[in-house]
Amino acid sequence: MEKIVFYEDRDFQGKSYDCKGDSANLDGYIHRCNSVKVEGGWWVLYERNNYTGYQYVIGPGEYDDYRHWMGFNDCVRSCRIIKNTKGPCKLQLFNRPNFDGKSLEATDSMKSFQEKWPRHEIQSCKVLEGSWIFFEHPNFSGRQYLLEKGEYRHHLEWGALKATVASIRKIMEL
């Protein structure tokens, strides 16, 4: 069963809110978010209402401080459950928009594209199976972008302002 509990203060203190599904607006339940317990499922947290702003992908576990899920601040205004966390994962990456240019197929997480993709620019991609997280820096760090099954003709379609992707991680339910 998917469930996430938001706490206004660090170390699971202060006002809390139990969430069991997608929520486009958390403002009525919490004013800030400094810690989280994920009791089931994989979730993407958004800095702004209506699933916009910075994205933070988190799985089952306890996060006693927003920095432990790589948060930039204590703003979490919307969230949703991630689908396709079981089974195989596969995607095609392209260095040009509209699935053009040099391409690379991936079926596993990659901590760094340095050897295979020197410029770190991914302009478009096709998620053929599973769900993936793109990171702007190597070693799964920096801004995160969730990509679920589908086609993304331009990096703006997955919410990135720049085409910089230096590492990728497939999401697998543990």
Describe this structure in words.
Keywords: Eye lens protein, Repeat. By secondary structure, this protein is mainly β. The protein folds into 2 domains: 3-81, Gamma-B Crystallin, domain 1, CATH 2.60.20; 90-170, Gamma-B Crystallin, domain 1 (Sandwich). Helix content is 0%, strand content 46%. It has a 4-stranded antiparallel β-sheet, with no helix packed on it. A 4-stranded antiparallel β-sheet has the order 9-8-10-13, with no helix packed on it. Strands 5-4-7 form a 3-stranded antiparallel β-sheet, with no helix packed on it.
Q: Into which percentage range does the β-strand content fall?
A: over 45%
Record field, number of beta strands: 14
Helix content: under 10%
**Which structural class fits the helix and strand makeup?**
mainly beta
Main β-sheet: number of strands, strand sense, barrel status?
Answer: 4 strands, antiparallel
Query: Which stretches are low in confidence, meaning pLDDT under 50 for 5 or more residues running?
Result: none
Distance between the termini: 13 Å
Count of domains = 2
CATH secondary-structure class of the largest domain? Mainly Beta
Would you give the CATH topology of the largest domain?
Answer: Gamma-B Crystallin, domain 1
Topology as a string of helices (H) and strands (E):
EEEEEEEEEEEEEE
Q: Which CATH architecture of the largest domain is right?
A: Sandwich
CATH homologous superfamily identity of the largest domain: Crystallins
Silhouette: elongated
Radius of gyration: 16 Å
Number of helical segments with 4 or more residues: 0
Please give the order of strands in the largest beta sheet.
2-1-3-6
Q: Which whole number gives the mean pLDDT?
A: 92
Domain Beta/gamma crystallin 'Greek key': 2-40, 41-83, 89-129, 130-172
Family: Belongs to the beta/gamma-crystallin family.
Protein name: Beta-crystallin S-1
Function: Crystallins are the dominant structural components of the vertebrate eye lens.
